[in-house]
Design goal:
heterodimer, A: alpha+beta, Rossmann fold, 2 domains, nine-stranded antiparallel beta sheet, 15 strands, 33% helix, 31% strand, B: mainly alpha, three-stranded mixed beta sheet, 19 helices, 3 strands, 63% helix, disordered N terminus
């Protein structure tokens, strides 16, 4: 047996995701700033690697598993207020009835609070974090490790990243994180910190700082784009409340398409496309679909 | 004159001391590993052991007929103390051994992490997790279960020794009518009498405490079943109407496996699902609810609880819960400990943490019996529940209940005394059809909660499907004699 095939088989056995061919695809449908609800099966078309795929529309799995991944580094002092505001906003907006966990990262990733239905436990755990010890910001490693853990869990999984998006000392590369995101069925959202840099101090930024900021934003945007989520980079601290509400509203209004994938397990990336439309008076009106870009199996 | 004046004398003393220093710990260690020998003669020991297994209520009836002399009782008490100390040391030693094994394995794992193949790594992860389970169990047994189990046995021994004389005193009091003069002896005026003035003033404090309690987010979720809620509420309100309560009673049911109940000032009563599961009949539940209502009518919480400290008390309670229920394992161990029967990591808000002292417990026992009786319930329910908890499963799942409630003997006697002083009443309720229906409904809720707990997601579970440890330290419901066997004849 060729080594590559053996490796593929082993990978298939050791990870939870590729074992199944039945996929739950989560997506949201938008028109401008408005979320479109109430669509039925006949309002969608699904294409995998360019080929149409049969699917059924089912209610989203409940409860969902939401992990808050929070940057907690000494280097994040400039972003501290934003991150605090974001965490408080998300904890206040989180609807009851789901599982929530809190993971922080700096030099390594720490599960501060494992999944619980009691939001207050997360609040208490966050309040007890104290001052950060490490200067590093290992965002790539943190995202990778958390996806690794979420991958093992069944059901609907959501990752909400709150941080600058910078990375200083990760063992994982951007490419590895990207591949991981493509292979795991987790929807990622991001609330980018650094509102003062984008707002008040924006005119004073040098080119290097602008480049760093753009790079950090690109990483968080990549996570959202790859997984069908969304990333925000506000210019005011107060915007995090609206972002948190928007994330949970999006999650509440997501559709779930269940289908059998026929994609080969070749570790290659295969594009996915979903069309959402409404036909009124023989006129087709298309909506914007926020869905993951594809799968790597 | 100093005896160590000459140098040879000093040398001799130094050598002797050095020998002693070397010898004493070794001797102590040898002693600590040796289980206590059963006292002689065999027949007396065995019959007395059997008596200690009997329910309190039976012992109250039969203690006067039992013939054990002071020496035999003293011998048995010494044996129970030695047995307790031996078992505690045994589990502490096992805890230490498990910790060492785990640390060694973790060290190996760290050293070899780069070279380990997946199956071997997985095997090591499983071993570490299993050691954490055993650590949790050993710690739980050493710190909570064994002391409670032996406290209970000693209380029964004390009852055999002292109850006949106490019974005589009680009968004398009844004969002379002196019992009417006891504290809270005016039972015919329950509801009219003024126990402690100012219950109404506690409502605001209670509301604030409840608000803070909820804000911590540490409370287990509420049990949201209309049948169970209605039943418990009706029962509690009935008892409240027949008590000295002057404020509205608010009942909150919490969906947690923990066997506990607690009252906050101003009539805020919290009952946990585990308690409803543990009670065998309506009179037992009525006894516990009446006891908690008595804490409110006696204003015990208000006397000792400071509003400013409620949040820290609750947090402390949650920490205690973590230690009791998981042996303090904070990460992987917690998950696996939960898997193996400690789960239900709810709030263990013991009355001790609320600052309720022994005197207040005794007072609540007395008043609780009065309220249950006045509401038409068999007042023995509280003793029977207490007994069941301590003798059987209580010292494991109900560790939080008992942790702060000794001495058992004084409380049992206080309760029995009060039962004897109460005027006779016909048709006292022990069980009811509604209670059975509630239990049926509770079965469904419990099954659902257990299923959910079993399937609870976790980020701290890198290895799934590890085999369970070959031998656990205990299985839920096992008697202490099986958990820590001692030599017999």
């Amino acid at each position: 047996m060729p080594a590559a095939l053996l490796l593929m088989l082993l990978t298939g056995l050791l990870t939870a995701e590729p074992q199944t061919n039945t996929i739950s695809l989560y997506l949201s449908v938008e028109e401008g700033d408005r979320l479109i609800a109430g669509l039925t099966e006949k309002n969608f078309r699904l294409y995998e690697a360019g080929r149409p795929v049969a699917f059924r529309l089912e209610p989203p799995e409940s409860p969902m598993l939401v992990t808050f991944l929070v940057e907690h580094s000494r280097s994040s002092w400039l972003y501290r207020n934003d991150i605090d505001a974001a965490v408080q906003a998300f904890l206040s907006a989180a609807p009851e009835g789901h599982w929530y966990s809190l993971v922080t990262f700096a030099h390594g990733t720490e599960v501060v609070k494992d999944f619980t239905r009691r939001i207050g436990e997360l609040r208490a755990a966050y309040a007890e974090l104290g001052a950060p010890l490490w200067q590093d910001i290992d965002t790539y490693d943190a995202v990778y490790d958390t996806l690794d853990k979420l991958e093992l869990l069944p059901g609907r999984r959501v990752l909400i990243v709150m941080g600058s998006g910078f990375d200083t000392l990760s063992a994982r590369t951007l490419s590895e994180v990207q591949k991981k995101m493509e292979s795991v069925n987790v929807t990622a959202f991001a609330a980018g910190a650094g509102s003062s840099l984008r707002g008040m101090y924006e005119p004073y930024l040098g080119s290097a700082a602008r480049l760093d900021l753009t790079q950090a934003e690109a990483f968080l945007n990549m996570l959202a784009r790859k997984s069908g989520g969304q990333a925000w980079f506000p210019k005011f601290e107060t915007a995090y409340r609206d972002i948190a509400r928007a994330v949970f509203l999006t999650l509440q209004n997501q559709y779930r398409l269940v289908y059998q994938t026929s994609l080969p397990r070749d570790r290659k990336f295969h594009r996915l496309r979903v069309e959402a439309f409404q036909i009124t008076d023989d006129q087709r009106k298309d909506f914007r679909v926020r869905v993951r870009e594809g799968w790597r199996r | 004159m100093c005896p160590y004046r000459n140098s040879s004398g000093r040398k001799f003393t130094a050598v002797l001391l050095a020998e002693l220093v070397a010898f004493l710990p070794a001797a102590a260690a040898a002693q600590s590993r040796k289980p206590p020998a059963p006292p002689q003669p065999r027949q007396v020991f065995e019959t007395l052991q059997a008596q200690l297994q009997r329910p309190y209520l039976e012992l109250f009836e039969d203690a006067a007929k039992l013939e054990y002399n002071a020496a035999q009782i003293a011998q048995m008490r010494k044996y129970l103390d030695e047995a307790r100390d031996f078992c505690v040391r045994e589990f502490r030693s096992r805890l230490s051994s498990y910790q060492k094994q785990r640390q060694q394995l973790q060290g190996d794992l760290k050293r070899r992490t780069a070279s380990l193949e997946d199956p071997e790594r997985r095997d090591m992860h499983c071993k570490i997790q299993n050691l954490r389970i055993l650590e949790s169990q050993a710690q739980m047994l050493a710190e909570h279960a064994v002391p409670v189990a032996y406290e209970n046995k000693k209380a029964k021994l004390e009852l055999i020794e002292k109850w006949p004389q106490e019974l005589k005193r009680i009968r004398d009091e009844i004969a002379s009518g002196a019992y009417h003069q006891r504290r809270f002896g005016d039972v015919k005026d329950i509801g009219i009498r003024e126990l402690v003035a100012g219950q109404e003033r506690d409502v605001k404090d209670g509301q604030e405490a409840v608000r803070q309690l909820k804000m911590t987010g540490l409370l287990p979720p509420e049990l949201d079943n209309p049948v169970i809620k209605k039943y418990v509420n009706d029962l509690a309100q009935k008892i409240a109407r027949h008590s000295d309560l002057r404020v509205p009673l608010n009942i909150t049911l919490l969906n947690s496996r923990e066997i506990n109940a607690f009252a906050l000032p101003g009539g805020f009563l919290f009952l946990q699902r585990g308690l409803l599961e543990a009670v065998e009949d309506e009179a037992q539940l009525a006894g516990v609810i009446a006891h908690e209502i008595a804490h409110v009518t006696g204003r015990h919480g208000n006397k000792l609880m400071k509003r400013a400290t409620i949040a820290s008390i609750i947090y402390q309670a949650a920490q205690v819960a973590a230690v009791i229920l998981t042996g303090g394992a904070a990460t992987l161990g917690a998950y696996y400990a939960l898997q193996y029967g400690f789960y239900g990591l709810g709030l263990v808000l013991s009355l001790d943490l609320l600052g309720v002292s022994r005197e207040f417990e005794l007072e609540a026992d007395q008043l609780g019996v009065q309220y249950a009786w006045n509401a038409g319930y068999d007042p023995s329910g509280f003793i029977r529940f207490f007994d069941r908890m301590a003798t059987r499963e209580g010292y494991v799942n109900g560790a939080s209940w008992f942790r702060t409630h000794p001495p058992f003997y004084a409380r049992m006697v206080q309760t029995k005394r009060e039962m004897m002083f109460l005027p006779p009443k016909a048709g006292l309720i022990r069980d009811s059809e509604e209670f059975r229906r509630m239990k049926q409904e509770l079965g469904k809720v419990t099954a659902q909660a257990e299923e959910e707990e079993k399937n609870k997601p976790s980020l701290l579970r890198p290895v799934q499907g590890c085999p369970a440890p070959d031998k656990l330290e205990y299985k839920p419901g096992e008697p202490i004699e099986k958990i820590c066997p001692l030599p017999s004849y």
